[in-house]
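To assess whether ligand presence alters the predicted conformation, the chain was also submitted together with NAP. Input:
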Amino acid sequence: MSSAGTRVAVVTGSNKGIGYAAVMELCAKFDGTVYLTSRDEGRGRKAMEELEKLGLHPAYHQLDIDDESSVLKLRDFLVDTHGGLDVLVNNAAIIFPMMTPREEFVESIRKTIDTNFYHTMRACKILFPILRPHARVVHLTSDDGHLLKISGREPEAAALRQRFCAPDLTEPELCQLMEEFIEAAKNGDYYERGWPDSVKEREDTWPNEGYIVSKVGISALTRTHQRQFDQDPREDLTVNCVHPGYVVTDATYQKGEKTIQEGAEAACWLAMQPPSSSANNVPKGAYVWHDKQLVDWVNGPLPSIY
Ligand SMILES: NC(=O)c1ccc[n+]([C@@H]2O[C@H](COP(=O)([O-])OP(=O)(O)OC[C@H]3O[C@@H](n4cnc5c(N)ncnc54)[C@H](OP(=O)(O)O)[C@@H]3O)[C@@H](O)[C@H]2O)c1
C-alpha cells in the first residue's frame, strides 16, 4: 500500500522515555504519520498499546540502530509506503554509570560511542537520502554534549576543542577524534590527553566519559550535517541538536527535574519547524537548550546546570 504524499515522522528508541513522549507530542500536533520505533518489537508493541489507550494512533516499525540491516529495512519500508521521510528524531542512546567497574570501563566506552555516535551517524547516512524538501532532523544531545565538556588537562583539552569546532570538520575527522579518545581510554591517560575525567569533575554517579564524548560527537556532527544540507539540492533541510533537560527516565535512574513530556518539548518544537522563509528564523545546525534557547556551543555559557 502506498500513501505517498502523507508527511512522515520517525522517532528512534521511542518505546519509553523522552522518545515515547516525543511520539505522544507528534501524534497530537504533527500533520502526518508518526512512527514509534523500538529495537525490541515486544517493548514497542506494549508502548503502542499504552498510546492507543490514550487515544493516540502512531504507526509502528522495528528499528535497532546497532543493526545496519534493521535501518535499511526501515528505509526501504518508508520509500515503498510513503515515498520519503519528513521528520527524523534521533533519540536512541545508551548510558553506562560513571562507576562502571574498571574491567568493563573500556568496553562500556566502546559500546557507548558505537551506539550513540557511530550508529546514529550510520542511520543518518542511510535515511538522509530519502528526506524530502523542508525535512527536519533533530539529534538528542545533552548538557554533556557541550564543547566545554571536553575539559581534561590544558592545553591538550583546548587543542581537542579546536578540532571539534573546526568550521570545516568532516565526518572522517570527527571519527578520528572518537578513535583517539577510545585509544586514550585504553591507555588510561585520557585526562592527560585533554579528554574529560568524570571522577575529577563530578560528585554524582553518572555519566561516564564515553557518554560525554559520544554526545559532544553528536553535537559536532550536527554542524557537519547542516553544512552538508546547505549544499544539498533539496530545499530547506535543517538539523539541530537539543539538550532535553534532566528528565525522569530509566537513563537517569528515575531521577530528574522534568517529566518525559517536558523533556520532549524542545525536540518536537524543532521537529515541527515551519518551512524557512524571510519572515521566520528557523534554527539550523544549532545546539538548543530545553527552554528552546539557542546556545553558543563553542564558547557557552550553559544557561543552567542541567
Ligand atoms: N533523561 C535525561 O535526563 C537526558 C538528559 C540529556 C540527554 N538525554 C538524551 O535523551 C535521549 C533519550 O533519553 P532517555 O532518558 O529517554 O533514555 P531511556 O529512557 O534510556 O530510553 C532510551 C531509548 O533508546 C532505546 N535504544 C537504546 N539503544 C538502542 C538501539 N541500538 N536502537 C534503537 N533504540 C535503542 C531504548 O530502547 P530499550 O528500551 O530497548 O533499551 C529506549 O527506548 C538520549 O539520547 C539521551 O542521551 C537524556
